Amino acid sequence: MFDIDRWQELFDAIRKNKLRTFLTGLSVASGIFILVILLGFGQGFQNGIRHEFEADATSRVWVWTNPTSKEFKGLNPGRSIWLKNENIDYANDALDEYLETSSGVSRVRATITYKGESGSYGIQGISPDYQEIENVSMTMGRFINQADMASNAKVVVISNKVYREMMDKEEDPLGEYLELSRFNFKIIGVFIDNGGEREENRVYIPRTTAQTVFNGQNRVNNIAFTLKEDADFDAAVARSKEFVKDYETYLKQVNTIAPNDESAIRVFSALEEAKRYYSLASNIALFFWFVGICTIIAGVVGVSNIMLIVVKERTREIGIRKALGAKPWAVVGMILHESIFVTALAGFTGLIFSMGLFELVGPSIEVDYIVNPSVDFNTALTMVFVLIFAGALAGFFPAWRAARIQPIVALRDE
User: What are the MacB-like periplasmic core domain coordinates in residue numbering (predicted)?
Assistant: First the structure.
């Protein structure tokens, strides 16, 4: 039942000790505030990592080469190593159980010109599978296809950035020609890349055309793969490691590279990198939980200390109440009422301020690896109720101690 006298008594006690109640509530509110902020930034870190890996295929593997760093079989270090078309064919045939898509990438050094205007953009010779590997979307036209590869077609797919910077926005780019060095390439499509404008600072042509027209022979600068999906993330990482090991061993054998030469063949696995980042994010989240909970515990300890002081100050009053017939649980309820009220009010205040702060500035926060920090409201609300329970527990022991005081002892208290 609602007891108006109990509430009046509570507010009278708060009015008499405004500063003490304020400081107690502040410690509790700051605990919830700090916990929610830390959890929010932990989620923002996970969002940032997810955003980084969503820009390209999550299961992609990149392979490239550097000069050898060790002597092997009479060959001196410092040899240049080139990836070739047959290295792609080997992976597609011998390691097909691992692969979903593959593409060699041949970089071309050439000037891009359109109607007398030149632009500085990258030119890459790629295969049709590269669209999935790089996770690009077509806004106009189509991507490179197998027919383009087979015929060494002089066709080009430009990015939305190139289209915007080199052409009139009212102009239909499809069917127009870009001049790459002295060769004319027909525009067949316009793409956008989820990685942003940095990834759009390039155009794509068929790899076979790049090798034939620009004297690339059968060489590629790097090779990109995507691996078959696996229902279990850890199993997918394990398969990625197996593929990387098998393919790296093959490349070292065909290029006569020392098995312990770590720099000649370089491999980047997005899955392994993602696992490292996600593990780091999980560890950071656990650390944030630890710091936030410790802060809340400090606030609850403060509540408990204040309740001890309250009991000490009201010892004679408690003695009089008991002498007049007050039951022990009535005394416990009186102390708990103040403890729960202060904890709940402060906890919800901290929650409202922290959630409001995230609503106002969260979506605009975008720094490296932190995107839209936020926290699940249900999680935060649950923490507040846990805090209220902890506050009740903190107030219970001083209240129980007060309830066990004999009236005669309490009346003698000075």
Answer: 21-239
